[in-house]
């Protein structure tokens, strides 16, 4: 399992970092077998696994069930627990919840933005933190690309540098222009992981359901569907139904 220091070392060596979301035992096992560097138990599970419209619908209770299952499925992979909306509302609450992720086997936690005093407190307690900048789904008014204006780009870059100075070992850069992703990557010691952040970040993360084609809907423009698991699943279930229906009644 890669430690936070080893992930930063990959950046220093110019080696790319692969991260994917997974939410349960079976898919975590597959991700580990495929050799991904890191698994993110993202709060995107609100949408992908539970069918909610917003990531704000899930809390620590759900996140810990999924995180524990992923850690059981991928015991040799660096698993990141994603702090759900409200779980990092103040430093003490964030610390308690971060500890709960580590207690079920996560190696680090991720949180969106720079909630007041929270990253400072977590780092003072040696919690490995992955920051998240750019589009922040928990609080975003829309899902358009962020950092298109000079002012917005400067604010994102400043936030990234600030979390770097606090000792975050890594940061997700979501849905920002490629040149901003590249500039931040060059300007911080933390490893940068893009999702719609261009090709020059230190690594990439994709939501599993987009990468594996687990749903028939549209995927974001920056995602790639590597297999069509939805079609394979429907085909498999159809074959099963046919086999049941063709069994003769005695
Ligand atoms: O919850 C999630 O899946 C995420 C990714 C989009 C990085 O935060």
Shape descriptor reads globular
Structural class: alpha/beta
Strand count, sense and barrel status of the largest sheet are: 8 strands, parallel, barrel
Q: What is the H-and-E element order?
A: HEHEHHEHEHEHEHEEHH
Bound molecules: 3-methyl-2-oxobutanoic acid
Number of helices: 10
Tell how many strands the DSSP assignment holds.
8
Query: Uncertain spans, ≥5 residues at pLDDT below 50?
Result: none
Tell me what portion of residues adopts beta-strand conformation: 5-15%
Give the overall average pLDDT.
97
* Computed Rg: 19 Å
Q: Give the strand line-up of the largest sheet.
A: 1-2-3-4-5-6-7-8
The proportion of residues forming helix, as a percent range, comes to: 40-55%
In whole angstroms, the N-to-C terminal distance is 54 Å
Any overview of this molecule?
The protein is an alpha/beta fold and 250 residues long. It is built from ten helices and eight strands. The chain has helices at residues 4-13, 25-34, 45-48, 60-73, 91-103, 118-124, 150-165, 178-187, 208-211, 229-245; strands at 17-21, 38-41, 78-82, 108-110, 129-134, 170-174, 191-195, 203-206. It has an eight-stranded parallel barrel, surrounded by seven helices. Helix 2 (25-34) packs across helix 4 and helix 5 crosses helix 6. It is globular. The site of 3-methyl-2-oxobutanoic acid (KIV) has 11 residues, from strand 6.
